[in-house]
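Notes from the 1:1 (GR / supervisor)

We went over the backlog. Supervisor wanted to see one worked example end to end before approving the batch request, so GR pasted a single chain during the call. The sequence is below; no edits were made to it. Supervisor asked that the structure be written out right there so they could see what the output format looks like.
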Amino acid sequence: MFNLLWGIVYVLVNFSLYLLCYRLFGKKGLYAWIGVATVVANIQVTKTIDIFGIAMTLGNTMYVSLYMTSDLLNEKYGRKEAQKAVWFGFFTLIMTTVLMQMALYFSPLGGSDDEMQKALQSIFGLMPRLALGSLTAYFVSQFLDVKLYTWIRKFYGKRHQFWIRNNGSTMISSLVDTLIFCVIAFAGREGFTWTIWLEVFLTTYIIKFVLTAVGTPFLYIARDFKFADEDKE
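Structure output shown during the call:
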């Protein structure tokens, strides 16, 4: 029960910080969010939790916020800005992976028993595989999301139909994202039986599905933000 209640609090805090980031820094804040969320999500996904006896990984809220960001950029600034943000997310994840892998090769002062080295190894030692899964899934699903959003907008382009464009594109692309990521990151991994893998895949997608719906009101709020410097552009 604690994980569920704490998870609700976490989601509200996460999306509120998302709004605050955009409110304070405008379009640049959305790019900053993409960079931070891409890295944080891949760190959080290494932790598996249990809610009502169901195994799931962390990082889902951050992943959903990535789709929210690309959809918001697409809605307010156009398709090219959304695509540019996706490429920016690629760069931050690749940069983090390369730098942290290099950091792990430094000999720690405490030798092989150094606690911080063990902690970093536990988290970032998995990152190459996680990064491969994330980059592949991110590449396919994010660009799919941008294209789907643009396509859906042709049929549901009215202002009040924003929720159709957002939910429709995200729920399809996040299914593709979850499938690709789970296959590359977790298939055959020690401790991940087929049953656990399937459970993680299904629960991860269901959680993303729910979070997408929860995030929609936050997107409506964000869409109405006005910025004087952007009006001059």
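Supervisor's comment: The helical segments are 2-44, 60-77, 79-104, 115-124, 127-155, 162-186, 194-223, 228-231.
Batch request approved.
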